[in-house]
Write a structure and sequence with these properties.
The chain is an alpha/beta fold. Helices cover about 30% and strands about 20% of the residues. The chain folds into two domains: about 190 residues, Rossmann fold; about 220 residues, FAD/NAD(P)-binding domain (3-Layer(bba) Sandwich). The protein is built from 17 helices and 22 strands. A hairpin with a 6-residue loop joins strand 16 and strand 17. Helix 1 packs across helix 3 and helix 6 packs parallel to helix 9. Bound molecules: flavin-adenine dinucleotide.
Amino acid sequence: MSGHKLLFDGLKLWTSGRSRWISRLHDGINGRVQACFSSFSPKVCIVGSGPAGFYTAQHLIKARQDVEVDIYERLPVPFGLVRFGVAPDHPEVKNVINTFTQTAKHSRCSFYGNVNVGRDVSVEELQRAYHAVVLSYGAEGNRRMGVPGEDLAGVYSAKDFVGWYNGLPSCRELSPDLSCETAVILGQGNVALDVARILLSPIDILKKTDITQPALEALVDSQVRRVLIVGRRGPIQVACTIKELREMVNLPDTRPEMVAADFEGVTEAVKDLPRPRKRLTELMLKTALEVPGEKEQERRNRASRVWAFRFFRSPVEILANPDNNRTAGIRLAVNRLEGSGEGARAVLTGEVEDVACGLVISSIGYKSLPIDPSVPFDSYKAIVPNSMGRVQQAAGLYCSGWLKTGPTGVIATTMNNSFDTARSLLEDMDSGTLDVSAARPGSQSISGLLEKRGVRPVTFSDWEKIDSVETSRGDATGKPREKLLTVEEMLQLARK
Ligand code: FAD
């Protein structure tokens, strides 16, 4: 261990910045157990408090007894897409918040909400204050369809629609018009199925979730009875997983309405598919082609709402009403497949089909955006270029989560890729590639900058005040929580 560090065995020291007693034991490279003076601890800053930010922090804190981690988050509330993406009727998925809370409350972790990195503080300023900066700010942009009519009223991105029902402050004003009978969702991934399920779920189910009150009220009045989930390719290429498909199949008061011809050749192909894809395809085949048992047939007959996959179709144009001011339909190109299996390509046949609908939701993917000109960014892949989480040509800069890989995979995938980034960072510390020999001021200098700029961060205990108000408001209406919908209200409560 380098000579500049003050090492005391098991010594308890008062840290000026955090007002608490700490005991830091660091199992050094040479195997000796040593305690380090906290002001010489390696200081890591993480940008973004979604799963990537928290899993990176968790791994760093567990792996080294001397690392201090500060998490900066744009919003006053933590947890990223676990709060603003995961569907309200998937409460079990949100249990990861318990683990994140443990990390946030760790003596060597601090949370600074309400800090927009790139605007309130630059990445270069963070790099000067910390030994390492990990960018984990997710994928908040939206892929556009690039078709005429995309900006008509009645067309929404799944990102905004999901943000609306999940209480993302920037989507509060969306107020989607649900007065039409047919909605078309473009894309056949899990997000598309989440949106379809929320549009069709009985209100009795939704009202027990943490869906926002305005969204619940809009869904009570919704006239949407038919949801078409459109994909460029065929049943063997859908991007959803079996859990989400099963939820659609079993959704009360709905029935599937598939086109049998879309499944030509699928029965024969299914046996050669890899296992998860095989099970998914079998469930689709069963739903589309099998004659249901008496009970299921009765259930389907009674259903007042319909959902369906529409395969081999790509959007060509959103069609306007006669006043040319809102969506009245969508023109779809009919495709055929070239090749087979998951890699098959959609090729236009030249045919088109018009579908009448008043609502179009495009669920064709999220994308990361650059937040600071000093950070390398691959605009084509919409990620920060990196190898194993080390940002290319930027010493001391790392990335994890969707910003690192692109917006694919579930929380478990994000966890693994964030652990990998943490491992890279730790390896660099151990090898000396990442210089931690000189003390860095960490949050002390950043707090000063923020104060000068009139930015007041929200701490984790401030968040806990918001959390407690949200859960007690939820208790009053039988929901797990009633989310605050504006940044102003969140800040007001945090500062009480
Ligand atoms: P995010 O979760 O997006 O976190 C990024 C964080 O960075 C956010 O808190 C954001 O506010 C913050 N940030 C952004 N810009 C800045 C800035 N400039 N300064 C500071 N902070 C910033 N996975 C499952 O396992 N199960 C599910 O049911 C599930 N449902 C999903 C539903 C939807 C609609 C979506 C989109 C994803 C879902 N996922 C689900 C996937 C899961 O949400 C992702 O794998 C995971 O959230 C990615 O984590 P992340 O930390 O990279 O990004």
